[in-house]
Write a structure and sequence with these properties.
The protein is of the alpha/beta class and about 400 residues long. Helices cover about 40% and strands about 15% of the residues. The strands form four sheets. A seven-stranded mixed beta sheet has the order 2-8-7-6-5-3-4, with helices on both faces. Strand 10 and strand 11 form a beta hairpin. The longest helix has 23 residues. The chain binds pyridoxal-5'-phosphate. The site of pyridoxal-5'-phosphate has 13 residues, from helix 5. The site of pyridoxal-5'-phosphate (PLP) has 13 residues, from helix 5.
Length: about 400
């Protein structure tokens, strides 16, 4: 008889976007000229001084195990970053360095959740949030954030979602996939709700430095009470073009940090030591390459938004951060394009790939059927070519 497998983990879904990405890859391999708007990572090389720090670590440092929660020197640099950028006082005992922000999210949810707990997830959501909540034995409760509200939580819809089982709210600003950036007064409102109901806030700030309009505020900076309830998630992946290096971190109260450290010490031990030295250099070194990257993203963002809004039946709001645009395709629903009936975001993404050789991410992957996500982490030349192709394929 076949032994049964973990029911919990069997229920973790494969990414629904995987199929379309795999199809685009296969078409590229077959020699087709595909323009891809699928990227979830900067198209820039990791800055030279960071690469050099990694080489220096290999040649000149002890690169054995570090403390499971990370190098003390790196934790201190992270505390300095919190002080300088976010007006937050943390000590090294509040920090856990992990193998990417994703592992930090896993640690955070696994530390605070019990079976039966509910975690509020903004929808459209970053694909991993619901699955990470389920892995922690809790239940994701989706709160739809509407385009007309700038894809942000409102006080009313948050309050409606809260029950006696609500353990945490996931907050992601700047947001993937919408590019939404919360203003300070909106964050203060969320902080008040969290405090009034004694709910944790998991504040995913991984796109913190990729902001083109407005400023980033960290919800934890509004007072000791909300700081105690918040687990900040951050890392070097997106801002320093270091996705493959796998370094993320959390800041939280000591009790939570201790459990996350124990958990990580048995699950993975310390994150890669060489990458930790590289992350240390990233935080302490010259920030000019980061500003150059932001400038390039901003130029592409402006072009993309203007072009999309000039195309009949397509539209988008201007994202203020990260590197994604949510393109509204609701006017195409039910229509037939070149013989293909469009009934959902997957149909449209498939149609664009087959007909225009353009890859986009269907909104269904984020829980939103009337959108597709376009990443502008690709050259302006590709963006121009891809949008021309989209324009000629949506003409009715
Ligand atoms: C909102 C959000 N949080 C976390 C992550 C994970 O980041 P990392 O690569 O550091 O694990 C991503 C990556 O796509 C993301 O978009």
């Amino acid at each position: 008889m076949k032994k049964s497998l973990s029911i919990k983990n069997e229920n973790i879904s494969a990414s629904v976007t995987l199929a379309i990405t795999a199809k685009a890859k296969k078409m590229k391999e077959d020699g087709m000229n595909i323009v891809s708007f699928g990227a979830g990572e900067p198209d820039f090389k990791t800055p030279k001084y960071i690469r050099e720090a990694a080489i220096d670590a290999i040649e000149n440092k002890s690169i054995g195990y570090t403390a499971a929660s990370g190098l003390l020197e790196l934790k201190e640099a992270i505390c300095e970053k919190f002080k300088a950028d976010n007006h937050l006082d943390y000590k090294s005992e509040n920090i856990v360095v992990s193998s990417g922000a994703k592992q930090s999210l896993f640690n955070a949810l696994a530390t605070i959740c019990n079976p039966g707990d509910e975690v509020i997830v903004p929808m459209p959501y970053w694909v991993s949030y619901p699955e990470l909540v389920k892995l922690a034995d809790a239940k994701p409760v989706f709160v739809e954030t509407l385009e007309e509200d700038g894809f942000k939580y409102t006080k009313e819809n948050l309050l409606k979602a809260i029950t006696e089982n609500t353990k945490a709210i996931i907050l992601n600003s700047p947001n993937n996939p919408t590019g939404a950036v919360y203003e300070e007064k909106e964050l203060r409102e969320i902080a008040k709700i969290a405090q009034d109901h004694d709910i944790y806030v998991i504040s995913d700030e991984i796109y913190e430095k990729l902001i083109y309009e407005g400023e980033h505020s960290s919800i934890a900076s509004f007072g000791e009470k909300i700081k105690d309830l918040t687990i900040i998630i951050n890392g070097v992946s997106k801002c320093y073009a270091m996705t493959g290096w796998r370094i993320g971190y959390t800041a939280a109260n000591k009790e939570i940090t201790k459990i996350m450290t124990n958990l990580q010490s048995h699950a993975t031990s310390n994150p890669n030591t060489i990458a930790q030295y590289a992350a240390l250099a990233a935080l302490k070194g010259d920030q000019a390459p980061l500003y150059e990257m932001v400038k390039a993203f901003d130029e592409r963002r402006k072009y993309m938004v203007e072009k999309i809004n000039s195309i009949d039946n397509l539209s988008c709001k201007t994202p203020k951060g990260a590197f994604y645009v949510m393109m509204n395709i609701s006017k195409l629903m039910g229509k037939t394009l070149n013989g293909v009936k469009i009934e959902g975001s997957m149909d449209f993404a498939d149609y664009l790939l087959d007909h225009a050789k353009v890859a986009v991410v269907p909104g269904i992957g984020f829980g939103s059927e009337e959108y597709v996500r376009l990443s502008y982490a690709t050259s302006l030349e590709n963006i121009k070519e891809g949008l021309e192709r989209i324009e000629s394929s949506v003409v009715l």
